From TrEMBL:
The keyword Transferase applies. It comes from Deinococcus proteolyticus (strain ATCC 35074 / DSM 20540 / JCM 6276 / NBRC 101906 / NCIMB 13154 / VKM Ac-1939 / CCM 2703 / MRP). It comes from the Bacteria. This is Glycosyl transferase group 1. GO terms for molecular function: glycosyltransferase activity. Keywords: Transferase.
Amino acid sequence: MTSLNIAVLCHTGAGGSGVVATELGLLIAAQGHAVHFVGPAVPFRLAQRCAVHGPYFHQIGSFAYALFDQPYPELSAANTLAEVILEQGVQLTHAHYAIPHATAALHAHAITGRAPVVTTLHGTDVTLVGAEPAFFHTTRHAIERSHHVTAVSRFLAEQTREVFRTEREIEVIYNFVDSQRFRPVHDPALREQFAREDEALLIHVSNFRPVKRVADVIDTFAGVLSELPARLLMVGDGPERVPALERAQRLGIADRVTFLGSFPDVQTVLGLSDLFLLPSSKESFGLSALEAMSCEVPVVAARAGGIPEVVDHGVSGLLAAVGDVDGLTQAALDILRDRSVRVRMGQAARRRAVEEFHPSRIVPQYLAAYRRTLELR
Ligand code: GMT
């Protein structure tokens, strides 16, 4: 089979869509395909992982001109991508997130007459930002004109058709997790740095945006703490971090909550934990929940968006309605009070992650989508 030469556009900060783009690019490069990331900075999880056989990184240039009241970054993105397409012989661009990436990729396609666009919809590009009047038509255009469109859950595909009133065919390709890297961590000395042996260790990982309902994480944890000894790890950063810390302080539980900030090798702490909390109001998939499941950590989450397609309620975790802190707290207690329940659900969670969401199952679906788009075999 001929090897491919693709460009990838994705968000570069901490966030699931950039993680999926990065891990996919790394796996595809490892199979001998040329992969060119194009962005304003090296994507979060790609740092230190570019190599002589790829993936490669090309920085988007910027240009300041007194007359321009804004930097117009999508024009620079389209320009740099067009350069990379022409200079590197790129055959196809994979844009993760409809705006601005699919828009920039379609622009580069129009400039070069090459590199059809595969767009992967990840979530708020459809459910929040893209549906805003300020972006609606641009997002709809990106979805309609991309040469192939995928979504990370059935929920998101349906939501896209509904929000944008489009008949566009959308292929569902689930996210994946590296179960070798995301695995249980049995390191009592490391765990002791965060919790005593008799304390339950709960964890939340996100980019602390309003959709994550971080206040519900704190309130759920407070409910758990009133019933049993516990600690909470908060991993990540974003606008809701300080309000979450203040809430923990107001509730008098701040000494039980550790904010660790944002770092790429999150598996080290996920694998030590007993329970993952994800009370989001919107979540097209919930990659962080899948990473926890792969580490044998059961999930307590809101029944939002695509989460039920990932976490099977009653088997690998428990779900409650969005905003139902009492329900989330009860669910967490049901799992944490009985070790056998926690272990059984944790094992079921890992089994599901390995069987349903392994890269060997998902990556070929993307490669097939690329080949179909290029009409290659
Ligand atoms: O759409 C977003 O909010 C950002 C995006 C990201 O880059 O983190 O998150 C989305 O994509 C992830 C990867 O596919 C999914 O796991 C997240 O569920 C999804 N976030 C939301 O839907 C809120």
